[in-house]
Amino acid sequence: MLAQTWPAGFCKINTCVSPIPTPIKFKIHGLWPNNITGSQPRDCLGPGGAPIPPAINDLDNTILPRLNSNWPGLKQIDQQIRFNNIRFWEHEWKAHGTCSYPLFTFREYFETGLNLYAKHDLMAILAREGIKPGKLVSKVDIVNAIYKHIKIVMLNTSIVLLAK
Question: What domain of life (predicted)?
């Protein structure tokens, strides 16, 4: 399940990095594996119950620019954005990515999230339906606009996007 967030809204209720990473668009919050029951496993362990460490060195210049732009750590964790992002990616791997192992390696987990994100451009989808930043729009109108283009499921108050 690919979770995306609108930085301006997210940063109204969280202490965020400043300035918010540009360009202003939906950002990836995470790629969260689901069980067949719909539950989301977290903090999975590898063979023999050992933790599966993040392989930060596998994130080279062929993927880092896309991660920095599309999957940044918005919450202020570290004074330097570069380290803020790395800590966020380590958190996402530990909490969610480890549950997709061995189907996805550390790098493949992030590549998969980036590829799904590129396939479903929420800004373009909403713009096609006349919904643009700064315009007051109901949640129902947003959900309906997205549903026309992507299969979605509502969980609590979150909109969950699934590939159609």
Answer: Eukaryota
